[in-house]
Amino acid sequence: GNASPLLSGSRSSKTFKPKKNIPEGSHQYELLKHAEATLGSGNLRQAVMLPEGEDLNEWIAVNTVDFFNQINMLYGTITEFCTESSCPVMSAGPRYEYHWADGTNIKKPIKCSAPKYIDYLMTWVQDQLDDETLFPSKIGVPFPKNFMSVAKTILKRLFRVYAHIYHQHFDSVMRLQEEAHLNTSFKHFIFFVQEFSLIDRRELAPLHELIEKLGSKDR
To answer: Where is the sequence biased in composition, kind Polar residues (predicted)?
Structure first.
């Protein structure tokens, strides 16, 4: 059979961001392990809830890092199908098109291809996650006052990568037999952002039907 797409050399290493590691032995690492264990129980609504006695910011931080890593991997499996020519604009179906701006380097939104947009987006997210003043990894270092709004912006943008994959590349995902993986990851993501009201409903519109479907199975 073919080499696994994760190992094939065809993918540009640029789009595939390095995994962000949570230091072993840290409290955040324990939280991540807790999250993984509860996910195994199969009840995602319960798995996303804030564990008893835990700090909300820290719980959101750990899960945001985890979603970044998951989306990174999922997108990594289909980068060879997401090219300047196949995806000249960053879209999630015909009605939704995204233009990139990060407010610092690029202030005015620019129209760019999906691979370029996703590269900007993932690089931007990684810079936020690596910023110790925003995502402190040391015990006892407080989260900044604007942490929640930063986390919301990160999650809002990560959602767009899921939306693009579902709308433009789902056939490739099916061919690679990654759809169960993608659906589980996305469902976990949606239940998480719903639990803490982290993404505006308007932003979720491109995948509204899928979100309804995922939610109804679980009530």
So the answer is: 1-13
Phi, psi of 196 (to 5 degrees): -115, 15
Q: How far apart are the first and last CA of the chain?
A: 40
* 57 band by pLDDT with thresholds 50, 70 and 90: very high
Q: What is the pLDDT of residues 133-162, one digit of tens each?
A: 999 988 788 999 999 999 999 999 999 999
27-216: which CATH topology? Butyryl-CoA Dehydrogenase, subunit A; domain 3 (1.20.140)
For the whole prediction, is pTM greater than 0.85?
A: yes
**What residue numbers does the annotated binding site cover?**
82, 87, 164, 169
Binding positions for Zn(2+): 82, 87, 164, 169
Count of CB atoms situated within 10 Å of the CB of 166:
19
Domain ranges of the chain: 27-216
